[in-house]
Amino acid sequence: MIRSELIQKIADENTHLNHREVEKIVNTIFEEIIEAMARGDRVELRGFGAFSVKRRDARVGRNPRTGDSVDVDEKHVPFFKTGKLLRERLNEE
To answer: Could you tell me the pTM of the whole model?
Structure first.
């Protein structure tokens, strides 16, 4: 599902909201999650999962094409851990 499909589904299920209002709500939610993670905060959505930021140390990597050593800087990467309810729903039989 892409963002526009999510917006359309929410708008279809909430006829009292127009499309622009739903789009603003979805964009606000995503922006808040991004801003919280940029601050280093953890974002938890009960039953769905938790977004956090992990730090990767600087290291010496290898260019796969040439085999030369390459210095890779320290970086921060997004991390998502699924919630218990989501894991259970995905593994139902």
So the answer is: 0.78
> What residues does 81 pair with on adjacent strands?
50
3-90 has CATH 4.10.520.10 classification: yes
Is the Cα dihedral 86, 88, 91, 93 positive or negative? negative
Mean pLDDT of 66-74: 95
- Going from N- to C-terminal start, the domains of the chain cover 3-90
- Report the chain's terminal Cα–Cα distance, integer Å: 23
Location of structure tokens 């299920």: 13
Amino acid occupying residue 24: K
Closest CA to 71 of 80, 82, 63, 83: 63
Give me the mean pLDDT over the 61-86 stretch: 95
